Amino acid sequence: MEPPAAASRLPSFASQTNALLRKNLIFQKRNRKETIRLIIVPIYLCVLLSVLQRVINNVLDKPKYKCGCKCVNVDGAGPCQNVCGIQYSTLDQAGSCPIPNPPEWPTLLQVPRAEYRAIQDSSKLFTGLPDASCRKSQSCPASIPFTGANETLSTTVMQNLFTDSPLSNLSDYTSISSLLLGTDIPGTSTGFIEPAFVSDVPMYVIQSQCKARDPVTVRVTIDAINIQKEIKCVQGLPLWRNSSRTINEETFMGYRKGKIRGGINEIAMAYDFQDSNEKHFNVLAMYNSTHLNISYVPTPFGLLRLSRSLNAVSNAYLQFLQGQGSGTKMLLQFMKEMPKQVTHLTIDFSSLIGPLFFEWVVALLFPVMLTYLVYEKQHKLRTMMKMHGLGNGPYWTIYYAYFLILSTVYLVLFVIFGSLIGLNFFKTNDYGILFVFFFSFTNLQIVLSFVAAIFFSKVNTAQAIAYLYIFGSGLMAGSLIRNFLEGGKFPRHWITVLEIIPAFSLYRGLYDLSQYAIRASETGNPGMRWSDLNDHTNGMRDVLIIIIVEWLVLLPVAYYFDHASSVGHRSSPLSIIKRFLGKNPTWRRISINEIANNDVHVEMEKLDIIKEREIVDQVLQQRNSGYAVVCDDLKKVYHGKDGNRDKYAVRGLSLALPYGECLGILGPNGAGKSSFISMMIGFTKPTSGNAFVQDFSIHTDMENIYSSMGVCPQNDMLWEMLTGKEHLQFYGRLKNLNGSALDLAVEESLRSVNLLLSGAADKQVMKYSGGMKRRLSVAISLIGDAKVVYMDEPSTGLDPASRKNLWSAVKQAKQNRAIILTTHSMEEAEVLCDRLCIMVDGRLQCIGRPKELIARYGGYYVLTMTTSSEFEREVEDLVLKLSPNTRKVYHLSGTQKYELPKQEVRIADVFMAVENFKKRVEVQAWGLADTTMEDVFVKVATGAQSIDELS
Questions:
Q1: CATH assignment of the domain containing 923
Q2: Where in the numbering of this chain does the ABC transporter domain appear (predicted)?
Q3: Angle in degrees, CA 366, 368, 369, rounded to 5
Q4: What are residue 847's DSSP bridge partners?
Q5: The model's pTM
Q6: Is the model's pLDDT at 569 over the cut of 60?
Q7: Regarding beta strands 109-110 and 225-240, do their DSSP bridges make them parallel or antiparallel, or are they unpaired?
Q8: What is the pLDDT of residues 234-286, one digit of tens each?
Q9: Are 245 and 115 in contact (CB under 8 A)?
């Protein structure tokens, strides 16, 4: 039968995108709760940041961190007035006070506490120090090791380091600042206040010898505030060392090793005079900033106190040159900060944790997009859409647009809501930069999700690895990029190389935005602007260039690999890459001679198979064959691995199938039926040979074949959240149906498989039984004007009534179609199929109409008789009298079954012989049947397998 005049035309790009868009909109409507939850994630996170920021602000707004105030009688009479200032503040409060006239502070040395000062050690280190008994009396000196190229000069300078003056001579602020003062408490982060003067701990005067250890109290006036300050004497003990290395070893071993033993040998300060002489002074000063050896916390006072150490040694060198009697001195009495306005202690929490936190927020979209893609891959829905005519272009267009819209809405809400609730990260930086940065990275992330989807076949695996990637790469980027940028020693061009990794480029951009936001909150200046991208310290321009270039490069690469891994190219990503490079390890063409050498078959081909091959040869010589399907010597070989033999799934199959015919393919498991169907639908590539569907080759024209092909796969490929009607509407649109024609086709399809009257049409597929899903899959394969339909065991799992309805639908549909059907039901094969072929071990064993096959391979009657066991011999004698060539095929407990050749017996003779036999012997039951299709199948399959074993 010829096909209808209006043959199926290839659906346009617009038709395909329209069908997929409508399907996705319905799917998202059903999945709207998940989508809404995803979109409100950034809003929730912004609220969380805002709450944390407010909590921090409330803590910082407490009086503990505000400038201290006191009610003071300014004029000595009347009520007191509330006066605020540094003189009324604690160390925590002083930093926020306005200081129009900063006080003068003497610079101090950092002196170890008495219980931690260096003492004699059992090792070769720490020689020249007192034993541990000095710690009990709190009299351990502050040790000052020194070295230099000229020991005499170095020793003389160190002798001039201290000025021995009685503590009783100390009277005022200026007198104490002229001495070498020290303290055993660390400095604060601001230089506006010296904690040694406002705390209760004593201060020290470092001298070569302490004549009296009793402390002296000195009155100090700072900004009209009178302070009583206790000052003690501590001995400064200079110790010569042979090298700076020895000093370093003592310092290191004394700190760490001493702490393990329960005591700490801490050194006050050290000097290396190097090559100093009478003409030039070159000294290396080492200072103590470990603060009781608890932790290393560098503060401005570390360097501030170093200035006193340098001043003391410089003054000692000057006295060495001029002589102590010259009266020449180099003094450093006071230091003071510049005036400042009132300040408020703030911490921009969102900008501080922003880079890592916001990286996770943005990257959270990656596993979401990857899940969408892998879900359709895992359930073979992409394959199903492809086989019904959906091209890669429409698929990419719709999914790329959907991901882009979802990501844009997600990030726009993130930025807008973050700005509305007052996060400086968004408020201070230019919105144009934020949009370009996030939009660029979103496009790159979409492309990366398409690339990653190639490597996964399970949703759970893809999700687990995706989340591990975003959290792990975020932590790694936060650790490396931040340390490299703030350390300043890592080459900047290598940082740029690291930014080729998407997670690192995202972190770098967020890091720069957060730094500009922090600076803006501290200084009041605006955040990042476009003009700032020209700054060499700003990495945003490089990041944008890297992201955009990566996106443009990976976009075609991702499209190619996605196409190569889709239907018709089922292979691993590694093999795809090798094929892209011109190497093809997974499949190769095999010549007929090679097949012959590996497959010795001793049986001559049957006449029906030879005739079918002749028809194929005649059809192939015509330009327009008029046949729906023509297979020309189709072969499929699965090459063995790890020393295993090759598997020959299909061996030279030749078929010609006209329109209006249903061809049934029978065969045992492993016969090659599914391999044949897979080649015809483009799921796998043939090893050799070719096939033509409506004169289109399966090698080069699968896109045209898909437009007029319907497939009912062996396993149902359905969306759980869509209804049966929505499935048919989607696939109908892919077949160029629309409007009233689509509605009519959907209604007829549902009615034909008994899904309309039962109300199942509007139920989601997740609520379907297995039989209902099977019927829906058949309806999908028949929707539209599909001229060739492949059905792989369509009635599996159906009850008898549903099976009958399904058969009626298939018989009605085959009037203008060619249907290829595989089944294990002989009844189904006889009812539906115009012709049947039997495959065994990849070969076509026979082909013809059911009655022809039964007549050809079933030339016998089957006689079944049940008697008592003692009459079994008489039954056998009876049958042998009817035909000497009778063959017994069954025998159990008095029941025997025999095959009687049709050419040797007549039915009337059998009935007459049995009636006469019943007069002599009690026959419990008997029957005579013609050969069934099942008998033919068993006979052909068993015979072919026996021949294969012999060969």
A1: 3.30.70.100
A2: 629-866
A3: 70
A4: 837
A5: 0.67
A6: no
A7: unpaired
A8: 999 999 999 999 998 888 877 655 554 556 788 889 999 999 999 999 999 98
A9: no
